[in-house]
Amino acid sequence: MVQQVIVAVIVAAAVLHFCTKYLPAAWRRQIVYFLTKRGFDQEKAAKLFNTKSSGCGDGCSSCGSCETTPAETTTTAPLKRVIKLHVQR
Question: Is residue 85 included in any domain, yes or no?
Fold first, then answer.
């Protein structure tokens, strides 16, 4: 009986770790919303699931999408982003 409880705790911890690290951000926000409706603290749940309570575009500088470029970089050529692909054969 004790072994089953220990295994259940380990499996629950593994599922929680998976949910906090590898789920898409939209799913994690839905989980935080679900937990908040059930009476859990929103701040702690948002911190655990690594979600931001503010939306994109409010100037929070968390994603970098709303940043303005400095004056010296506007005169130079824009930086190119390269995605390197490693083909495994």
Answer: no
Q: What is the pLDDT of residues 64-78, one digit of tens each?
A: 555 555 554 455 666
Domain hosting 32: range is: 2-53
In a domain, 74, yes or no: no
Which two tokens mark 65?
């999408």
Domain-located, residue 41: yes
pLDDT of residue 18: 92
Residue length of the chain: 89
For the chain, the C-alpha Rg in angstroms (whole number) is 20
Q: What DSSP state is assigned to residue 67?
A: P
Domain-embedded: residue 6: yes
**What is the pLDDT at residue 56?**
52
- Burial zone of 20 (CB within 10 Å; 0-12 exposed, 13-18 middle, 19+ buried): middle
